[in-house]
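Hey,

Quick one before I head out. I ran the complex with biotin overnight. Inputs first:
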Amino acid sequence: MKGFDIINLEECSSSNTYLKDRVDFYLPYTVVRCIKQTEGRGRWGRRWFSMKDKSLTFSILFAIRESEEYIYYPLIIVLSLIKLLEIHSFNPFFLWPNDIYISNRKLIGILNESITRGSNSFLISGIGINVNQEEEDFPQPIKDTAISLRMISGKIFNLEKILNEFLNKLSFYIKNRLSLDSINKVLKENSLIKENEEIVVKLRDRTISGVFKGYTRDFKLKLLVGEKIMEFYNGDVLRVANAGD
Ligand code: BTN
């Protein structure tokens, strides 16, 4: 790869939707940043709250040449974000499948969407980082569950600088391919849920309780339910220990 091409849009509804609609037009490794994102989308059709100058919202276009890249790109995004936060002296935790938490509150959400055009396959990874919000900026449903870098550190951050630092890390892992096992190890070390912890996996139509047993090599979550291990490739994880919080 030569590097990322960054397109800054003053305003758009969703950087994921913008790239999805123009996948034939842009080259792989194009990054679309919405300076003001008005209708950010989250997983399971949820909304993603963002504010101009306070949120960093962008999406990256990847061309998929081999199926392992559907797993590899999302994983190195999480890994790059963790490394970036650690350099800035934060203590981030990973919550499967692809959220980043600090102090038990959500700091970063990621929406991965795959699309095909003829025989070409693409992945669009949209990343939303709460950077400069203050507690009162978050609306009611997420007021007690969201956090920003400013709320943790008291500092105001330059959004462009964070984006560039992140993309530098990401391009390193694109150029220097890691094994899935070594990424699995880092994410396990930084996992919000610990092995043998009781959790609930929420799917679209049901919730399943069990004991967290780690991840498969292709990053499915393993849950011990009764005496059987179930594997999930998507879902929301709720921590039982935090249920009353
Ligand atoms: C989630 O936690 O459910 C995922 C949230 C992903 C939000 C980002 S912001 C940039 C990109 N554009 C979108 O519309 N969504 C993603």
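The domain at 5-189 is CATH 3.30.930.10 (BirA Bifunctional Protein; domain 2).

Talk tomorrow,
K.
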